[in-house]
Specification:
single chain, alpha+beta, Nucleotidyltransferase, domain 5, Dna Ligase, domain 1, 12 helices, 18 strands, globular, cell membrane
């Protein structure tokens, strides 16, 4: 029997993580076989700025994971959560070739999705990572799911496109090549983290995954089961460390230690650190809230905010988030389909999600109504969306 092995790699600002997993058919769960977690170099605000330095550390992370797993890796799913990660909504329309109205076909849907793609303003330096149809309209009637089989004369679609600088995707590929592995796909970090920690119910009612990394904070907002916005904010938990170092006049390593352990302190030092963390966390949540207001989702996510990434370990971060965003906020827990559910560290949400997506990519045959559209980019996530269509 063939082994179902998947590898996820996250090249972050503070660490480079590798996770090697195996899918167990008997239990229907993902089993962790190896983990690599090393200090990162050559990365700033989620972007690779020194390929040699980043590749050197990636090799170490990969070595740790493969040694633990007892297996070699030839390819992997990578994440990207750098400063250029963004999303936009495009609209397309199609007059259907039915004189008296007719049933919409799969080909009609593919054509209107292609029309939404054609409406995007060209950006020659950007890569489309993913695309998701948010909604359809048939003769101006709103259809939030698959419109195939519905009778109409005009079909419209709104599609979310997730983009990143082409140069950064090329840098990821260059790092992979230097350590001798191929890139299966590049996934937006908050979407990968969401795959590991969000239930389908939360995605349906409205929820946001907030991946608090060292250099950036990235968000994925879901409604009706699909992403409606993906965004990166150029501020992360590392800024808190820097503020503590300046405020207390201590080194960065000591500042990081005190950031993680200050809850056990007493007196003026604890109070000072609390003030620094609260101020900087307030800046982070203020940026997130401004984005929610911009897309008209502030205070309107019943599923709340799910925190992932290293910054989710900050003491009292949930309460700070609730006060700032006026929404339910909780630290991520893994879904039951993963061994991580037993003892989950939200720092590894992204690589765990990448592995789960890899299995879905393996299972999916690749044909069907969206196969032509998906060839323009984002094939994995497009197939993931297909699973939500009735």
């Amino acid at each position: 029997m063939a082994r179902h092995i998947a590898t996820g790699i996250d090249i972050g600002v503070s660490s480079i993580q590798t996770m090697i997993t195996e899918w167990d058919d008997a239990s229907g769960r993902m089993q962790i076989r190896g983990v690599g977690d090393v200090h990162s170099e050559g990365v700033r605000r989620g972007d690779i700025i020194d390929i040699d330095a980043a590749a050197t550390q990636l090799k170490k992370s990969l070595f740790q994971a493969t040694k633990m797993a007892g297996t070699k890796v030839s390819s992997a799913f990578f994440s990207y959560g750098g400063a250029s990660l963004d999303s936009s909504i495009a609209r397309g329309s199609l007059v259907l070739p039915y004189a008296n109205g007719g049933d919409i076909t799969e080909r009609d849907v593919s054509r209107v999705l292609d029309a939404s793609y054609a409406s995007i303003v060209p950006h020659h330096n950007k890569e489309i990572l993913h695309r998701f149809p948010i909604l359809f309209r048939v003769d101006k009637d709103l259809i939030t799911r698959n419109p195939v089989g519905i009778t109409g004369s005009r079909l419209e679609a709104e599609t979310l496109f997730v983009t990143a600088l082409s140069q950064q995707i090329e840098h990821i590929a260059a790092c992979a090549e230097r350590v001798g592995i191929a890139v299966d796909d590049v996934v937006a970090s908050p979407l990968a983290a969401s795959r590991a920690v969000l239930s389908q119910h939360k995605k349906e009612v409205g929820v946001m995954t907030l991946d608090i990394g060292a250099g950036t904070v990235s968000a994925a907002i879901f409604e009706e089961g699909v992403p409606v916005s993906v965004k990166t904010f150029p501020i992360g938990a590392q800024a808190i460390t820097h503020d503590i170092a300046i405020g207390l006049r201590i080194g960065l390593e000591e500042a990081e230690r005190q950031k993680q352990e200050y809850r056990n302190f007493r007196g003026s030092t604890k109070k000072h650190i609390e003030e620094i963390i609260t101020a900087r966390a307030g800046d982070i949540f203020e940026s997130v809230d401004a984005h929610l207001k911009k897309i008209n989702r502030d205070g309107l996510l019943p599923g709340g905010v799910i925190l992932a990434g290293g910054g989710s370990h900050l003491f009292n971060i949930e309460a700070m988030g609730r006060d700032s965003l006026k929404l339910p906020v909780e630290v991520a827990r893994a879904l039951e389909e993963s061994e991580l559910a037993e003892e989950f560290d939200p720092r590894f949400a992204t690589v765990a999600g990448l592995c789960l997506m890899a299995y879905e990519s393996d299972i999916e045959s690749g044909g069907g109504m969206f196969s032509g559209f998906s060839q323009k980019g984002g094939s994995l996530l497009w197939r993931w969306f297909k699973a939500f269509l009735p």
